[in-house]
Amino acid sequence: MQYPLIEKIGNPELLVGREKEFRIIDKWLSLIPNRMSKSKVIVARRKSGKTVFVQRIFNKLWSDPNLGVIPFYFDIAENQAWYPDFAIDYYCSFASQYIAFIQRDEQLVNKPLSLKKIREYGLANSNELLVDDVDLLLENQEMGLHDSMWKTACHAPHRFAAVLKTRFLVILDEFQNITQYIYRDEKCEGKPIESLAGSFHSLSESKIAPMLVTGSYVGWLLQVIAKYLEAGRLKHFYMSPYLTQDAGLQAVYKYAEFGQEAITNETALMINQLCMADPFFISCVIENQYEDKDLTTADGVINTVNYEISDRRSEMSETWNEYLQLTLDKVNEKYAKSMLLHLSKHADRYWTPKDLKEELGIDLSIDQIKKRLVQLSEGDLIDRGVSDIQFKGLSDGTLNLILRNRFEEEIDGFAPDLKDVFQKQIKTLTSENSKLRGLLYHQCERTGDYSA
User: Fold this and answer.
1) Of 135, 194, 211, 446, which is the most buried if we count CB atoms within 10 A?
2) pLDDT tens digit string along 243-292?
3) SUPFAM superfamilies in the record, alphabetically (predicted)?
4) Side-chain half-sphere of 19: how many Cα atoms within 13 Å?
5) Three-class secondary structure of residue 181 per DSSP
């Protein structure tokens, strides 16, 4: 296995678990050569591991040319960009990664060639596609035909696949950003080109260069796809932020090993339990800067996890606060927070605006309550049901802890004692482990085998 694309997770061994997800995706990848794979969008909240997942897919395809699929990865960053510059950046990234795959040159994956160097390679290797594309891009740039430049760039993977009788996988990370950060104005003033996502309308149906799309803001991403690519063109692939308990425990040991953090077998179980097998949560706890951090004792684990949830300077809090702020800036009033907290606490059922009005004593009309609920759902903070009036809290334990810490005192008049919650979880875990050890001992007594 080679890792030409540097994965954001850091050491590749930190990516553990995800067997089910990789099994599904590997089957999908295997069908690309036979033109049987439809484009997909990965649907998952922030910090679910989407980016490292697709980066690993890139590296797996790059490492095995016999699979017959050339990967192209492009991260649409939250940076303002002038339209023609964006087109050139996209094309240079594609062409460089294509050349890197053909030449088995890892360096070109992370250091894209310029248009001049791409053209020189094309001439030296009799690749008319590269030469003609660069000539057309430069000609259209000179004439100010920026739409034509972008068409040449975004259609390149499909065009190359058709002409060269090969297959590509187009991986677009943070796809929703294409609607907000690309400008026709050279100084990036005025409105961004929101409709630029529509460039992929027909390309999303390509069977020779299918797309794999991700985004950190699910509601926004799906709105963009529905508006510009039409519903159904990209199959939804749902990805939980949580690992299995076994994989979560493996993640604890890996992060402790590479982070050179002392833990015990008992506290490893505690960390995994309190972090709910969430690899991002686990990494935050093990890598945080809490000055009294001690992950070798139960109290030390509880205090460190509590710091990560409750201290606004912690990585976990800052990440979630940024996520919440985008929506709460639009719905920043007590009733919206009250509904969000209530739905999160009672995420086992759907609620209607009428239910919430009666349950919480909300002094708003049914329509006003529904409007706020729709905004919360568009901000990926709650789910919607089959009917237009059904709303439900996310089954997300990490989010629930963040919401309780941030809003419970404001809404209910008293701050939550999360340490007490954690202590009860540890007590239950310890009790269950004691019972398990007892059962194992009795089993050993009966069989006479104590090797376990």
Assistant:
1) 211
2) 999 999 999 999 999 999 999 989 999 999 999 999 999 999 999 888 88
3) P-loop containing nucleoside triphosphate hydrolases (SSF52540)
4) 6
5) coil
In contact, 366 and 382? CB cutoff 8 Å: no
Question: Rounded to an integer, what distance in angstroms lies between the CA atom of residue 62 and that of residue 72?
Answer: 9
Among residues 319, 339, 333, 323, which one has the least CA distance to residue 382?
339
Query: Given a cut of 70, is residue 446 above it in pLDDT?
Result: no
277 φ/ψ angles, rounded to the nearest 5 degrees: 60, 30
d(CA 175, CA 302): 38
C-alpha to C-alpha distance for 108 and 334, rounded to whole angstroms = 52
Class of domain 316-412: mainly alpha
Q: What is the residue extent of each domain of the chain?
A: 12-238, 245-311+418-447, 316-412
Give phi and psi for 240, each to the nearest 5.
-75, 145
Instruction: Name 382's bridge partners.
Output: 393
Structure tokens at 306: 């509590």
What CA–CA distance (Å, rounded) separates 192 from 183? 5
pTM equals 0.88
CATH of 12-238, one of 3.40.50.170, 3.40.50.1980, 3.40.50.300, 3.30.465.10: 3.40.50.300
Measured torsion, CA atoms of residues 93, 94, 98, 101, in degrees rounded to the nearest 10: 50
- Mean pLDDT for 418-433 is 81
Exposure string (b/e) for 394-420, b if CB count within 10 Å is 16 or more? Answer: bebbbbbbbbbbbbbeebeeeebebee
Pairing type for strands 168-173 and 182-183 reads unpaired
Please report which helix (H) or strand (E) contains residue 183, including its range: strand 182-183
Number of helices followed by number of strands (H, E) in the chain: 19, 9
Report phi then psi at 42, rounded to 5: -85, 120
Reduced to 3 states (helix: H, G, I; strand: E, B; else coil), residue 78 is coil
Look up residue 124 and give its two tokens.
């030296």
Retrieve residue 113's tokens: 């060639």
What six digits make up the tokens of 223? 């709105």
Alpha-carbon span 103 to 400, nearest angstrom: 49
Higher pLDDT, 103 or 344: 103
b/e per residue 285-305 (b: at least 16 CB within 10 A): bbebebeebebeebebbbbbb
DSSP state of 197: G
Is beta strand 168-173 parallel, antiparallel or unpaired with respect to 70-75?
A: parallel
